[in-house]
Amino acid sequence: MSGILPDQMLTIAAIATAVAPGQGGIAVIRLSGPKAVNAVAAITVIPGQQPWESHRLLYGHVVAADGETRLDEVLVLLMMAPRSFTGETIVEIHCHGGVIAVQQVLSRVLEQPGVRLAQPGEFSQRAVLNGRLDLTRAEAIADLVGARSQRAAQLAMTGLDGGIQKKMVALRERLLDQLSELEARVDFEEDLPPLDGEALLQELQAVRSQLLSLVADAERGAFVRHGLRVALVGRPNVGKSSLINRLSRCERAIVTDVPGTTRDVLESGIVLEGVPITLLDTAGIRATNDVVEQLGIARSHDALASADIVVLLFDLAQGWTGEDQTLLAMIPEGVPCLRVGNKADLDFAIESVADVCFSAVTGAGERDLVQALLGQCGALCEQPLLLSLNQRQADLAAKAAEALARSEQVAADGLPWDFWTIDLRQAICNLGEITGEQLTESVLDRIFSRFCIGK
To answer: Does the predicted TM-score (pTM) go above 0.85?
Structure first.
């Protein structure tokens, strides 16, 4: 033998908490696998008669390879298989935070035989493979860790509580019931009562309708989870920086009467109505010989292409000009645009072209602007968003809905029952991929590779 253990026998280790210089009082290093206890016991000195038993916390020190030099004062948490997150034996070393102490302890762990650095998401992947966690719950953990707002965290908790899993399993079982009826007719039609094709089609389309509703909700949920990129564009000195300062509730952008003050795309993160917003304060787009300003204007064009929505700000005092119309034509096709007239606090005739009239000085019209902004991207809806699929899950739900839609044509063509089973099987397979019931290990690898190390 080569001495290299098969992958499933290897113990994995990684830092499970954020690490930054001078930050974090405590850091956690997690090990999972059959060598976890031996590896930690080999690098620690645990005084007294502290028993190495499951779900106990031990006090001690991690020591260097000489067995004497103390590297850190630690607590060791033991969780023996199968009573752990991964279903394997897990040992956590709780050491001091920062960078140096954590890296020293991790290096000592990785020096031990049969221990290697975990891949991104590998702890969660092992939990799924060992039946401790279904795939939707594992993905919800990633969403919870990455949540940028309270609403995003609430949606992640719905998935973590099994909301997505239960919904998908229920819909899949309804389809399996119909498939079993169809297959029975294919094999034993002469011995069974006739199958009501109309009732069958209605049931398949009812499931399809629910899937389409989930796909639509996923689009709303994507804004809650990942946020919205909003590009502020307009002629120089129309109030873009003032607007970003108003919405941010602080002076994040320089405001002067000198045109061309903003020379680059400035990003500002805020949360509006539970939706994370990245405001892109772009350089005023105009003809200029200033090389630096030209670079800023070029970046403004890039910001327009990457934005989810554009706010085109214009000056109510000057009205809607030809330059404003030119800017409107520059916005990429398919990107929603809000035309916002600034200086609504002054006594000017309200332009009919404005979607919203606003004052960056007094805040007049701010509520209307926020509602219009979120409404344009579908983030506002009378129905509360209780459940939201991620992009992978939504894509599979959409494919399942497409497969069920084809059953209408099969029914219209009057084809035999075995033709019905083809698309029905495809839809069932798609839903099984959402929950992880029908997935290859290579697909799992691709899913969990997007997780952070230690998760």
So the answer is: no
